[in-house]
Amino acid sequence: MDSESVTAAKNRSKQAEDAGMGNCSRTWHVGLFFDGVHRNIEQDAPEQRLSNVARLFRAYSDEKQNSSLNSYSKFYFSGLGTPFNEDLTAKLYTIMDGAQSSALDDLKNHPGDIAKDAGKTYLKNGGNWWEIVKDSGKKLIKPAEWKKLADDMAKNAVKKTFIEATHWLRDHPIMADMLVTGVDTRIISAKTTFK
Fold this sequence. Notes:
Layout: H1 3-18, E1 27-34, H2 41-44, H3 52-59, E2 70-77, H4 88-125, H5 129-139, H6 143-165, H7 167-170, H8 173-179, H9 183-194
Parallel strand pairs: 1-2
Helix pairs in contact: 4-5, 4-6, 4-9
């Protein structure tokens, strides 16, 4: 490159910046803030007992600080066991993803469940362990066992989906403590917001 082309490129860049057109080198700063269990900025602010996550959220730059070189976005997600208002798109994704992940979890856990049942049978009845394992293996090829697995998977998916879709149940502090409800909803909401 010669010095004239470097100077020309520099002048074009300076003119574009002065005109407010910018270029492709704008940096987007994104802050995703997930608060702790039983913490919600809306509930904690009047009592002046904000969590560190809520304080970081408030201190993080927002759209008011945007410039031609930097852009800022921040998103807050309340903790489990507190009210969480997701939009309809996030709710639909939660329902679909929740049912799918529940079914996949059940399918992954099935061999382990069969092994646990075999261990319980061996401890309870004694006998030859290889015969118990052989009988357990036969369960895998029986159509009735696969039908039972499909039924269990469907029931678990419906339960999980119902709980995640029902905000007053999902965000209840006791449900959040016992069943860790609301995690999928918040993560999926963050994903759809980011998109």
